[in-house]
Design brief:
Blueprint (H helix, E strand, L loop, with lengths): L2 H14 L6 H11 L6 H15 L1 H11 L2 H20 L1 H6 L5 H22 L15 H11 L9 H11 L4 H27 L5 H31 L3 H17 L2
Helix pairs in contact: 1-2, 1-3, 1-11, 2-7, 3-10, 3-11, 4-11, 5-8, 5-10, 7-12, 8-9, 9-10, 10-11
């Protein structure tokens, strides 16, 4: 893995993290296109640089975040299911899920169909909604966190899983988008910390430098794109993303599988 490949992956992560298209899935597929050899370092890299993109959220909205202590309690409730499941399945995630391009392709394709079907179905619903993050209940927080755990399968998309879970619970699109991105902070901080704890001793100095570069590039890319991405996701349906996922899955089916 070289510096050029690292920068490309950082850009891909920073832009795709906040869209319902699976940043992890894109990192795996782009790594394949760049002919990067699968290794324990690459799998750790794909986890750790996600935190770089996620940290763009508190960097831009720290005032709003720090003043919502009640929201952080709800984020803690939402984080618990993912923490338990992620800890239990850590070896499977690293040794099986992150090595399977076919799993990513299938997940992108099925997820694309699911996004389109969900949007068509959801338009026909007439439910009361929580209009802002503060109105999300602890019960709904637990449900959203449980649904988020599905994103441990690369190609599913953490953003898509949590947003759809929240909308099913009656949370408005605007509120669940914000909650989803806030929930990513403890989720990816824990995932990065745990992975470093397990694997940092095996990384070389050059690999640490590549991690740092990927982290910074994903952070900067996310800073440049996050406001546009947040506004787009809040105001538009997921149908376009569903179509995109299906197209990408078919393309990589031909190229890889």
């Amino acid at each position: 893995m070289n510096l050029f490949q690292t920068i490309i992956l950082g850009i891909v992560e920073g832009f795709s993290e906040f869209l319902p298209i699976s940043s992890t899935g894109h990192l795996i597929l782009v790594s394949k296109l760049l002919k990067i050899e699968t290794s324990e370092f690459l799998k750790s890299f794909e986890i750790i640089i996600q935190l770089g993109a996620i940290l763009a959220v508190p960097a831009l909205y720290w005032k709003k975040i720090i003043n919502n202590k009640q929201v952080w309690l709800k984020l803690g409730v939402a984080f618990i299911p993912t923490a338990i499941i992620g800890f239990a399945l850590y070896k499977i995630i690293k040794q099986v899920f992150l090595e399977s391009e076919s799993l990513v392709v299938y997940s992108l394709f099925i997820g694309g169909i699911a996004l389109i079907a969900f949007e068509i179905w959801h338009k026909q619903r007439n439910v009361k909604t929580a209009k802002n993050v503060e109105k999300i209940s602890f019960k709904d927080s637990a449900l959203i966190g449980t649904v988020q755990s599905l994103a441990m399968i690369p190609g599913v998309s953490r953003s898509a899983a949590t947003i759809i879970g929240g909308m099913l619970a009656g949370v408005s699109r605007e509120a669940i988008v914000e909650f989803s991105f806030l929930l990513a902070i403890p989720t990816m901080t824990a995932a990065t910390g745990y992975d470093l704890l397990k694997n940092a001793n095996s990384f070389s100095l050059n690999q640490f430098n590549l991690l740092l570069v990927g982290f910074i590039v994903s952070f900067i890319t996310a800073l440049l794109s996050i406001k546009w991405l947040l506004n787009f996701v809040k105001k538009h349906s997921f149908i376009a993303f569903g179509i995109y996922r299906i197209i990408v899955a078919l393309v990589f089916w031909v190229l890889i599988l």
